[in-house]
Amino acid sequence: MSFSRKNPIKTSAWLKLSTHFEQLKAVHLQEMFSQNSLRESQMSVSWEDFFVDFSKNRWTSETIELFEELASELNLKESIALYFKENNLNFTEDRAVLHTALRSTEKTVVLGGKNIVEDINAVKHKIKLFTESVIEGIKKGCTGKAFTDVVNIGIGGSDLGPKLVCNALKYYKNHLNTHYISNIDGDELQETLQKINPETTLFVIVSKSFTTSETLQNANTIKNWFVSQLSEQALEQHFIAVSANPDKAVAFGIPNEAVFPMWDWVGGRFSLWSAVGVSIALGVGYDNYNKLLLGAQKADESFKNNDLKENIPVLMAFLSVWYSNFFKTTNEAVIPYSYYLEDFVPYLEQGFMESNGKSVDRNGEEVAYNTGSVVFGGVGSNAQHAFMQLFHQGTNLIPTDFIGFCNSLHGNSAHQDVLISNMFAQANALAFGTRGKEIENPYKVFKGNSPSTTFLIKKLTPETLGSLIAIYEHKIFVQGILLNINSFDQFGVELGKELSREYINSLENESNGYSALMQFYKENN
Ligand code: F6P
Question: Where in the sequence numbering do the catalytic residues fall?
Answer without folding.
Answer: 354, 385, 497
